[in-house]
């Protein structure tokens, strides 16, 4: 199994340039953000908006959340290893190795978790730096958000792996979980969204966002538990598919 | 006297794809032999090998490897199997050194020393991306890997197709060296029958998903012969000996399946030894013509 993990790491190493580029960009923006928040326009904008009664804290938190998501999304591109395996017909080679289908599938999950851990480590380090020099984010809450987002990424990656074992082309396997998540969220919050669109009343939508942020910040354990359960279920289902199809890498 | 062990055994194995069916495949490969698995493209060779390696499941029948069932549960059996596919099977951005790192952590018996020795022997660079390798080099890389974990069985799917005669000869030489150990066995699928004639002890001939002929190569070559005669005389040859008859303006050429009997019964006719290729072509033509022996 270790051999297959090493192979997947070689596959994902190809993305190293893109990953470095994104990390460098995120670090640069983080420095600009901190400097601006301490000495520049952002400091005045925040105080002005606070004075005007805007919920600037939530807006900044959402911005930071999306910003922090970048390294996680970047390292969570497990679908590429399936694309590479298919291009090289590696599934035949993998099937000829003395490795059981269970371990073959497990190697994909382990690779996914390893890469996610790299993205999370980068993000945690950034959060530590930003929170030490700025009041806008609190490290413990930011770390909670990042762990929750990592759990969400693990859920996404588990479905990507499952869909690839189900024979869905790698490109679609990335879009299907994202599309499904968007549809579910829209369906659950359709009332708030339609209210915001029809009467310009964004209060319920803003409340939803705040609830989401609070959940990400303070309920990381629930996200982790959910992610682990889903990952295990996806592993079982993927093993069944791999056994039925045998040769899938 | 010790009993001959079969390293590979197919017993009425069936794989049905709807538009193609491997139909009741039965044959055995004894330990210490080189088995040539011949047939035209699309005959079912790759599917049979995929079934043996557990890459695909079967609909019915049994497949045994080293006497154990191939059923998706015995992955450890592949520790002793070296596999060479018709395409490289490794990512083009990997170097031989990286492939060593992958396989070292996949096989218990992997020998780095043997792998790098093989690379040197085959003149393969260890730091060059294998995407830049020629087809011959890619095949040699797979063979180098297959020979580096103390495999007792080599399973190869068209390893020599698309290669020039010099490289093919080099590869055949590698197989000969592998066979110096008496417990080593090779299953070599190819439609280049010339290569098999050089090295094979046993032959399994598959066509249209069915085993047409199986047995000792020398026996098969001895039994079959090309009988050349006039078109008039061709009618005298018994249908029971005739595999396929081809009539032309200069006379008839018949592949017969009992050369000795034909020599006795038709002393005036020219009977020449046939090659595996001629045997394969005539059996395929017979199947196409739908004639029965």
What does this 3D model show about the protein?
The complex is a heterodimer of chains A (249) and B (293). Chain A is mainly α and 249 residues long. Chain A has one domain (2-245). In chain A, 86% of the residues lie in helices and 0% in strands. The N and C termini of chain A lie close together (12 Å). Chain B starts with 5 loop residues before the first strand and ends with a helix. In chain B, strands 6-7-8-3-9-10 form a six-stranded mixed beta sheet, with helices on both faces. Chain B has a four-stranded antiparallel beta sheet with strand order 2-1-4-5, covered by helices on one side. Chain B has a four-stranded antiparallel beta sheet with strand order 12-13-11-14, with helices on both faces. In chain B, 31% of the residues lie in helices and 29% in strands. Chain B has two domains: 6-216, P-loop containing nucleotide triphosphate hydrolases (Rossmann fold, 3-Layer(aba) Sandwich), CATH 3.40.50.300; 224-289. The relative contact order of chain B is 0.14. Chain B is built from ten helices and 14 strands. Chain B is an alpha/beta fold and 293 residues long. The A-B interface holds A 2-4, 6-7, 10-11, 14, 84-85, 87-93, 95-101, 243-244, 246-247 and B 50, 53-57, 72-73, 75-79, 81, 83, 85, 87-94, 98, 101-108.
């Amino acid at each position: 199994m270790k051999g297959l993990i090493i192979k997947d790491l070689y596959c994902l190493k190809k993305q190293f340039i893109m990953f470095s580029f994104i990390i460098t960009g995120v670090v640069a923006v983080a420095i600009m953000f901190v400097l601006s928040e301490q000495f520049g326009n952002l400091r005045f904008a925040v105080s002005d908006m606070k004075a005007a009664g805007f919920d600037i804290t939530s807006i900044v938190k959402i911005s930071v959340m999306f910003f922090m998501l970048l390294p996680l999304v970047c390292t969570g591109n497990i679908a590429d290893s399936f694309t590479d395996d298919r291009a090289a017909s590696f599934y035949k080679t993998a099937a000829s190795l003395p490795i059981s289908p269970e371990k073959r599938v497990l190697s994909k999950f382990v690779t996914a978790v390893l890469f996610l851990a790299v993205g999370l480590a980068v993000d945690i380090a950034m959060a530590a730096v930003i929170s030490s020099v700025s009041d806008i984010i609190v490290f413990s809450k930011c770390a909670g958000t990042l762990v929750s987002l990592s759990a969400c990424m693990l859920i996404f990656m588990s479905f990507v792996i499952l869909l690839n074992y189900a024979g869905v082309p790698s490109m679609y396997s990335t879009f299907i979980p994202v599309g499904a998540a968007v549809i579910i969220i829209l369906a659950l919050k359709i009332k708030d969204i339609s209210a915001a669109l029809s009467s310009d009343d964004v209060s319920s939508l803003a409340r939803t966002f705040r609830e989401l942020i609070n959940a990400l910040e303070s309920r990381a354990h629930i996200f982790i538990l959910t992610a682990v359960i889903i990952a295990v279920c996806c592993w079982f289902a993927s093993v069944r598919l791999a056994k039925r199809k045998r040769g899938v890498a | 006297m010790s009993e001959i062990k079969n390293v590979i055994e197919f017993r009425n194995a069936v794989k049905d794809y709807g538009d193609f069916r491997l139909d009741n495949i039965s044959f055995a490969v004894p330990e210490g032999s080189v088995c040539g698995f011949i047939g035209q493209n699309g005959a079912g060779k790759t599917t049979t090998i995929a079934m043996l390696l557990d890459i695909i499941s079967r609909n019915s029948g049994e497949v045994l490897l080293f006497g154990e069932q191939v059923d998706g549960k015995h992955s450890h059996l592949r520790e002793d199997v070296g596999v060479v596919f018709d395409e490289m099977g490794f990512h083009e951005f990997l170097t031989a050194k990286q492939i060593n790192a992958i396989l070292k952590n996949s096989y218990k018996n992997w020998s780095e020393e043997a792998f790098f020795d093989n690379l040197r022997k085959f003149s393969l660079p260890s730091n060059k991306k294998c995407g830049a390798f020629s087809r011959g080099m890619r095949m040699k890389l797979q063979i180098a890997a297959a020979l580096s974990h103390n495999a007792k069985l080599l399973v190869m799917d068209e390893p020599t197709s698309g290669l020039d005669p010099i490289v093919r000869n080099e590869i055949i030489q590698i197989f000969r060296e592998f066979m110096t150990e008496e417990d080593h066995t090779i299953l070599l699928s190819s439609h280049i029958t010339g290569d098999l004639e050089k090295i094979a002890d046993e032959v399994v001939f598959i066509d249209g998903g069915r085993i047409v002929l199986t047995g000792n190569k020398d026996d098969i070559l001895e039994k079959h012969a090309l009988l050349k005669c006039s078109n008039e005389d061709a009618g005298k040859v018994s249908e029971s000996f005739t595999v396929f008859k081809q009539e032309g303006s200069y006379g008839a050429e018949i592949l017969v399946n009992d050369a000795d009997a034909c020599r006795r019964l038709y002393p005036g006719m020219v009977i020449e030894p046939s090659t595996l290729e001629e045997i394969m072509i005539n059996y395929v033509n017979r199947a196409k013509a739908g004639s029965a022996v």
